[in-house]
Amino acid sequence: MPLLRCPASIKLTNQYIKQEIRTHFLPELSSDFSSVVELNEIKQQKALNMVSKRVSEQPKMDVHINMFGRLEIISSQGVMNEDDLTTEQGCNLLAYMVLNRKMGYSASMLYEPLWPDTESDDPYSAIKSVVYRLRNTLACIGLKDLILASHGTFILNPAYTIYTDVDRLEGACKRIEASAKTESKKRLYECLISLYKGGLLASHETNSWLLPKATYYQNRYIQYLKKYIDLLNVQNDYFEIQRVAVEALAIDGRDGDIHYSLINAILDQGNKSVARVHY
Predict the structure, then answer these.
(1) Are 101 and 193 in contact (CB under 8 A)?
(2) Residues 6+ apart with CB under 8 A from 267
(3) Prediction pTM value
(4) Can you tell me the distance from the alpha carbon of 59 to that of 61, in angstroms, rounded to the nearest whole number?
(5) Rounded Cα distance, 221 and 278, in Å
(6) How sure is the predictor about 237, in pLDDT bands with cuts at 50, 70 and 90?
(7) pLDDT at 136
């Protein structure tokens, strides 16, 4: 079964797949689904408003770091994203330290993921320079001391409590497995969808140290969306299956199981013409 028609001259990327879904599939959806899209836009605006409120109410020593899609750092004094960081190395260094929680990192440990396949006679000076620029940038939102240097090593300041979307996603997965109530599971599945805004540090995910983690979390996300679709199938909720399948295909447009579920959900709603276009 063909998944998406793609000219041979065009690389089958997730971005291309998203555009194909918008161009060839979304225009054919029912007006009810269009209302859902509009509702999602309203929810996004509400989410932005909630971020502004959260910043103003956030405890001073709490830091929220989001990494799905792009890096975002939220402190009690403001919000910063990866575009605000002065170097790619600074973004990678912070992400590496947050994703690989340790008590301390030697310069050599940090040098390898930032400059793979290269060697340095003085890795400490190289890392110290990156940390210096990163701290000066983080100072704009009151986090100059988020990374500390001590006795030749670098650590995340233990005085801060760091919350990440990665940890929240893992927590939601565990609660789904532990929950026996259908409605509770559905709320947790929706939480997963809201958390996963794209690949882990999507603009950096080809980095050798990051690629295995990015692949792991994408596979985990798709795995749980398939479980969500199974749950919705039991309830004969074909409209929701359609919505969830579109969310999944925007991340992984090559997954045949998701395509199969989507086409069946459309057919079960009596929309044969839409199913034919997608097929």
Answers:
(1) no
(2) 275
(3) 0.76
(4) 6
(5) 23
(6) very high
(7) 94
Question: For 105-115, what is the mean pLDDT?
Answer: 92
150 within 8 A of 106, measured Cβ to Cβ: no
- Cα dist. 107→84, 92, 154, 254 in Å? 24, 14, 7, 40
What CA–CA distance (Å, rounded) separates 67 from 82?
10
Query: Tens digits of per-residue pLDDT, 154-184?
Result: 999 999 999 999 999 999 999 999 999 999 9
Q: Helices 211-234 and 165-178: crossing angle, nearest 10°?
A: 40
Output the pLDDT for position 253. 84
Burial class for 3, CB neighbours closer than 10 Å (0-12, 13-18, 19+): middle
Which pair of tokens denotes residue 246? 């579109």
Nearest to 70 by CA among 81, 86, 85: 81
Distance CA 88, CA 82 (A): 8
The 10 Å Cβ neighbour count of residue 194 is 14
The whole-angstrom separation of Cα 143 and Cα 212 is: 29
Question: Using alpha carbons only, what angle is made at residue 184 by residues 245 and 72, rounded to the nearest 5 degrees?
Answer: 65
